[in-house]
Amino acid sequence: MNATLHWRCLRAVIVREGLRFVHQRERFFAALVRPLVWLAIFAVGFRAVLGLSIIPPYETYILYEDYVTPGLVAMIQLFNGMQSSLSMVYDREMGSMKTLLVSPLPRWYLLVCKLLAGVLVSIAQVYVFLAIAWFWGVQPPELGYLAVLPALVLSGLMLGALGLLLSSFIRQLENFAGVMNFVIFPMFFASSALYPLWRIREGSPTLAWIAGINPFTQAVELIRFALYLQFNGTAFLAVTACLALFLGGRFSLTTPDGGSGPAAAARRNKGDTTGGTAPGDLRLMAQTTVRLSRRAGSGGGNVMTGHSDKPQDQPRGEKSVLGSEQEFKKDEPQDAGRDERAKEDIGRMGEASRQNRSTKDAG
User: Fold this and answer.
1) I need a surface site. Which of 110, 197, 229, 234 has the fewest CB within 10 A?
2) How far is CA 316 from the centre of its chain?
């Protein structure tokens, strides 16, 4: 039963992300336009400028289009990971995240489901791009399209985990554009996606060192070697370590109640997993909900605000509608009496209706 529940949750999240991707067709085309612009326009200009020597995993001289394709594949996954984190920020602002938080499953499992769903969407985009690149003359070994799949899964998980980690610190959609400019573009350009590290080292050893420790560089090299039926152990270990680091950082910022961010982590470290709300406040909130519901039902007031059209139902004096626990107990007999009077009114109305009906039948 527990395994069935986990599987249903994973399937639901994947289907939801798939439907969102299908309905947002502009997102699909935007994901393909960026790498195709580099492949069809920039690669033509850089072909004559950048001379490429024979470097692993290539066994002969190659065109610039062949070199840049693995980097463009990783770029698709990088942008998709950031797009997935943007959708989490959007869901949190719009309130749809609550539909996941009411699940009895642990919060870390919900994050993993979200991550896996994003990876599957990015892999679909990657294979569409590789199919288009094949017509541009970028034709790796046929088995490479299958061998690159595990590398795509691992690199997609790592880049998606980075997006999840960033979503913990992004509280508003307006801040996401700045994060993209600050994270995505430096990671992409300071890597081996567009030019080999030895070429960067000739121009700037410092930049070459930065590119060497860039997680995106390791993801690119992992994909590049796998696409040509080779295995890069260093890149594999680096990507796996970054995945564990990013996921660990994201889980450490998630409290059992679903809260995230540094403030939520601080509350959890203090032993408060109620989102900063004390048990007494929770009891008071529950009593408030009951009282406001009764007021709205009898006086036509607003359940959310507690305001009513009747003067006697307005808050007494300058006190808040929340009042105190003693006031709730004091108002309970009044609420009970109001309910009894309402029942009597309904009974009299029913009796009058029956008498009118009998009079008409007699007439």
Assistant:
1) 234
2) 45
Instruction: Name residue, tokens 């294979």.
Output: 127
| Rounded Cα–Cα distance for residues 267 and 254 (Å) | 10
Closest-CA residue to 217 (of 243, 239, 246): 239
Report DSSP state, residue 103: S
For residue 134 the two structure tokens come to: 């094949």
Of 89, 76, 65, 81, the residue nearest 29 (C-alpha) = 76
Phi, psi of 254 (to 5 degrees): -115, 125
Task: Kindly state the tokens that stand for 96.
Answer: 């749809």
Taking Cα atoms as reference points, which of 173, 194, 155, 176 lies closest to residue 64?
Answer: 194
User: Phi first, then psi: what are they for 157, rounded to 5°?
Assistant: -65, -40
Q: Please state the pTM of the whole predicted model.
A: 0.67
- Measured CA to CA, the distance from residue 289 to residue 287 in angstroms comes to 5
Q: What token pair was written down for 131?
A: 């199919």
How far is 72 from 138, CA to CA, in rounded Å? 12
Cβ(246)–Cβ(158) under 8 Å? yes
Q: Please answer whether residues 83 and 164 qualify as being in contact, where contact means their C-beta atoms are separated by less than 8 angstroms.
A: no
Report yes or no: 32 and 132 within 8 Å, Cβ to Cβ: yes
Model confidence pLDDT, tens digit, residues 229-283: 999 999 999 999 999 999 888 888 764 444 444 444 444 444 444 343 334 444 4
DSSP-derived letter for residue 362 is H
Q: Is 91 exposed, middle or buried (0-12, 13-18, 19+ CB in 10 A)?
A: middle
- Whether 179 and 170 have beta carbons less than 8 Å apart is answered as yes
Is residue 210 very low, low, confident or very high in pLDDT (cuts 50, 70, 90)? very high
Write the CB contacts of 321 (distance below 8 Å, at least 6 apart in sequence): 288, 292, 305, 306, 307, 315
Which tokens is 200 given? 């960067």
